[in-house]
Amino acid sequence: MNKRLQAIAEMVEPGIGLIDVGTDHGYLPVFLAQHGYPGLLIAADIGEGPLCAARRSADSAGLLARIEFQLCDGLALCDPDSVDTIVIAGMGGDTICGILDRAEWCMDRRYRLLLQPMTRAEVLRYWLTNNDFVVETERLVADGGEIYALLSARFGGKQKLCDAELFSGSFAQIRKEPLWPAFSAALRLRMEKQVRGLRKGGQEPGRLQLAEQILQELLEEERTRADCTGDL
Ligand SMILES: C[S@@+](CC[C@H](N)C(=O)[O-])C[C@H]1O[C@@H](n2cnc3c(N)ncnc32)[C@H](O)[C@@H]1O
């Protein structure tokens, strides 16, 4: 278990069942079984190779009978009554949206979604807020020189995020994370670079306007943080 998966495991609450979509080596369900998760554990993957690897991990931990294995796209084989936690980690934000889009049953308050986009987190937050999910928790974890976003979401509510918050998570939530200053500085540099490139190119006024807007929102957030902490 790397620090990223460890952080996801820390967000898991005891429940009736958990499915780990895109389980790959099955490290998360094996870890949860070893640490007393009480409910059903499902390891699902679209690839035969990764699912075999998950079976091997469970076997070497003596937990083959404790975990159910599903070879399928996303949540296609998951019985909606068997789980209350859905983990989708280590994939692009757009892939995660596709998996959720194809499983309309997860649009129900009884499911807690633990999501960890590797890229395009803004696409995922846009999809969630547009489909009446509320992001309840935002966390940041450092692993191997990268900072990863982890979020938990539940259906049934309205949440408004500004353009910058689609990239970072709600400022009110993410501000509590120790890694937020580093993450926001990296995001600001990325946006500054984008603004410079778009100004030079002069061909995409819509994209330029959006990047400038995000930059301004990030700078305002930095000022608010400085006012609160006396930093910066
Ligand atoms: C990079 S691994 C992530 C493994 C683990 N979840 C983690 O966070 O470290 C991505 C895994 O997702 C699987 N995957 C990709 N698209 C999928 C889909 N639509 N349904 C199920 N699994 C998928 C891949 O086969 C691969 O094993």
Tell me the Rg in angstroms: 19 Å
Low-confidence stretches: none
Bound molecules: S-adenosylmethionine
Distance between the termini: 35 Å
Count up the helices.
Answer: 9
Number of DSSP strands? 7
Strand order of the largest sheet: 3-2-1-4-5-7-6
Write the H/E string, N to C.
HEHEHEEHEHEEHHHH
Please estimate the helix content. Answer: 40-55%
What characterizes the major β-sheet?
Answer: 7 strands, mixed
Description:
- Strand 4, helix 4 and strand 5 form a beta-alpha-beta unit.
- The chain has 232 residues and is α/β, with parallel strands linked by helices.
- 46% of the residues lie in helices and 23% in strands.
- The chain is built from 9 helices and 7 strands.
- S-adenosylmethionine (SAM) binds next to strand 2, strand 4 and helix 4.
Question: Short summary of the structure?
Answer:
With 232 residues, the protein is α/β, with parallel strands linked by helices. It contains 9 helices and 7 strands; from the N terminus they run αβαβαββαβαββαααα. Strands 3-2-1-4-5-7-6 form a 7-stranded mixed β-sheet, sandwiched between helices.
Offer a few descriptive terms.
7-stranded mixed sheet, binds S-adenosylmethionine, about 230 residues, alpha/beta
